[in-house]
Design a protein that fits this description.
Blueprint lengths: L4 H4 L10 H11 L5 E2 L11 H12 L12 H15 L8 E4 L1 H13 L5 E6 L5 H7 L3 E6 L10 H8 L4 E5 L11 H13 L3 E5 L24 E6 L12 E4 L2 H13 L6 H11 L2 H24 L5 E2 L7 E5 L7 H12 L1 E2 L1 E2 L10 E5 L4 H19 L1
Parallel strand pairs: 1-11, 3-4, 3-5, 5-6, 6-7
Antiparallel strand pairs: 2-8, 7-8, 9-10, 10-13, 12-13
Helix pairs in contact: 3-10, 4-10, 5-6, 7-8, 11-13
EC number: 2.6.1.1
Catalytic activity: L-aspartate + 2-oxoglutarate = oxaloacetate + L-glutamate
Cofactor: pyridoxal 5'-phosphate
């Protein structure tokens, strides 16, 4: 039987970027010890009080069909959180709950793009972005950035593609680079979206992980609330990656249509997951800071280790749980270096090439193991790079 071109073409005919990660997992399955610095999975699991609330509400009976848009109380809680942090008036009618941030990204592009429309995204990008856009029927178009600019998108690069596009996807704090977009960058993004009538889809799942500068939601910029769809999630802020609870915040009319989409696709998120998410959000910013603290700490460890050598370069690590390291001095591609490091030292990292052409010659390191082990792995990585450079 013939499969659809849409499903067969999700990766654009090439790798989906997860090859090194999958090799590491096969090695682990064979009993080989591997230090994993690949995916953004907290080393501390979901806090016990959140799990206890999940258990309580499940035992209490909230296991049937939940409200497809999300429970009214969770939507109210998300709306209040967004309004408090951005100053933009936000109600439950601006919020739809989704099965995680990934589903939110897909739904947002379904709302913004018709089949064949050009959808822009910034390179380097999270590995699922191009496939998500293709799955929504859009034609993905990458906007290249440069390591020399700390991967901040330039106005001229955006304008070279914006006239023929219908949407632009950005992510700040950024995965994979760890960069937080500057006010100047966000103002240029907003200006171009207004001038060329683009939807802006803003992936803000790392908004609680900012080490330098500040996070600004572009929905709060002048003239942007009516053309911005914000993607949020419980995964990174509350260490609830497996719970699959996220949201989209946007104009009321778009949210109404996204609720219709949910009715025909996901049919909502389990009620006990939503109840636990609401409970988690009400624990406040202090709890979110506790979840983020290990990554702030390990970022300082990384800066100390990398400052002691001259082979591996560090892209400014301003936010999120990742480091983008420049290994071009070794003469190797990021992919070759990642395979070599895995084979030689059983340390798994993600090649920069998994995240686009702009990150070639780099690797992404997830700061997701205990401090002492993280320091040791990073020191080994740097020594390995020095030997390869020599």
């Amino acid at each position: 039987m013939r499969q659809s071109e849409r499903i067969r073409g999700l990766t654009g005919g090439g790798s989906d970027g997860w090859d090194v990660f999958l090799k590491a997992r096969r090695m682990i399955a064979q009993g080989i010890a591997v230090t994993e610095l690949t995916i953004g999975e907290h080393d501390v699991r979901t806090a016990a009080p959140i799990l206890q609330e999940m258990h309580r509400t499940a035992i209490g009976g909230h296991t049937g069909y939940a409200a497809v848009p999300g429970t009214a109380s969770l939507r109210d809680t998300v709306a209040a959180r967004v309004q408090a942090r951005t100053g933009v008036p936000t109600t439950r009618d601006n919020v739809v709950i989704t099965p995680g941030g990934q589903a939110a990204l897909f739904a947002a592009h379904m709302a913004a793009c018709d089949p064949g429309d050009t959808a822009l995204y910034i390179d380097p990008y999270y590995a699922t972005y191009p496939g998500t856009l293709r799955g929504a029927g859009a034609v993905p178009q990458a906007i290249r950035t440069r390591a020399e600019d700390a991967f901040q998108p330039r106005a001229e690069a955006l304008r070279a593609h914006s006239a023929n596009a219908v949407s632009l996807l950005i992510n700040t704090p950024n995965n994979p680079t760890g960069v937080v977009y500057s006010d100047a960058t966000l103002n240029v993004v907003a200006e171009i979206c207004r001038e060329d009538d683009l939807w802006l889809i803003s992936d803000e799942v790392y908004d609680t992980q900012v080490w330098e500068g500040r996070h600004v939601s572009p929905r709060a910029l002048p003239g942007m609330a009516e053309r911005t769809l914000v993607v949020g999630s419980m995964s990174k802020s509350h260490a609830m990656t497996g719970s699959r609870c996220g949201w989209i915040v946007g104009p009321e009319a778009v949210i109404a249509d996204l609720i219709t989409l949910a009715t025909h696709t996901t049919y909502g998120v389990p009620g006990y997951i939503q109840d636990a998410s609401e409970f988690a959000l009400t624990r406040g910013e202090r709890f979110e800071a506790e979840i983020a603290a290990p990554f702030r700490r390990r970022r300082e460890i990384a800066r100390e280790v990398i400052a002691r050598q001259n082979t591996v370069g560090l892209i400014p690590a301003q936010g999120a749980m990742y480091l983008m390291l420049d290994v071009r001095a070794t003469g190797m591609t990021g992919e070759a270096f990642a395979y070599d490091l895995l084979d030689t030292h059983r340390i798994a990292v993600m090649p920069g090439e998994s995240f686009g052409a702009s990150a070639a010659g780099h690797i992404r390191v997830a700061m997701t193991i205990e401090d002492a082990a993280f320091r040791q792995a990073l020191e080994t990585l740097c020594r390995h790079a020095e030997r390869r450079a020599a």
